[in-house]
Amino acid sequence: MLTGCATAPGAASAKDTVARLGETKSLTLGYREDSKPFSFKDEKGSPAGYSVELCKRVAAQIQQQLKLPQLELKWVPVTVASRMQAVRDGTVDLECGSTSRTFDREATVDFSNTIWVQDSSFVSLASAPVVRVADLNGKKVGVIAGSTTEAALKALAPAGVVPVFVLVPTHSDGVAAVRDGRADAYATDRLILVGEVLGGPPGATLMMSDESLSIETYSLMMRRDADFRLAVNRALAEIYRNGELGKVFQQVFGANVRPSRLLEAALLLNALPER
Fold first, then answer.
1. What separation in angstroms does the CA of 155 have from each of 99, 148, 159, 254?
2. What is the CATH number of the domain that holds 244?
3. Which residues form a coiled coil (predicted)?
4. How many domains does the chain have?
5. Which residue range(s) make up the domain with 98?
6. Can you tell me the distance from the alpha carbon of 76 to that of 228, in angstroms, rounded to the nearest whole number?
7. In this structure, which of 6, 85, 189, 194 has its CB flanked by the most CB atoms within 10 Å?
8. What is the pLDDT of residues 65-112, one digit of tens each?
């Protein structure tokens, strides 16, 4: 299978994705540059992470399904702000990031079966800790506009928790805002916070809250196309059944890391049989 990178591909047809793959023998994948450990640009400038590795294996399975001699992968960077439009207008065929599946989003795009389940939380300076969700009231909280975490924070208002929002474009900027004092806390999905704190530049020590803001369910995002969605879900189910998921975990997280029981259960439920 050939791979390549692209930054501005021509818009793909919004319909009949499977048929077009058979004609062009290429698949355009969207990825995030700043969403460790799910989807990011590594030190060599290449797409990397859990969702990226899953998408590579999904592409290999689709290549087998369609009996294609080759399937070229074209990688296109997307952001939180651009990812849904990139899917809708055909700039990318499949988004391999850290996108939570919601009914509001599903009104305009399709999603694969579940690829990840986790909670969202927040970090603050260890020297000025924000420990509990209730402590966010009146605090300056960094968050990415339009994210499910922003919606979860806004939903705290009836409980008397009303943060002062500090909107940031990326996770890295959110963590930086805490370290330089622009925000008292930064909120997003827990494992992304871990990736940013451990993999980011050195700075003031941060502390993560033990409390949760929401439960986030990630899926791969695509245009409304029933045949392509079926091909993607069939590929994911095979990956969940054949042991490839364990290889992804070892590659991305290390040899001794295993899925949580919640994630194992979610993926097992999506390892559907062919017949």
1. 19, 10, 8, 36
2. 3.40.190.10
3. none
4. 2
5. 3-117+218-269
6. 19
7. 189
8. 999 999 999 999 999 999 999 999 999 999 999 999 999 999 999 999
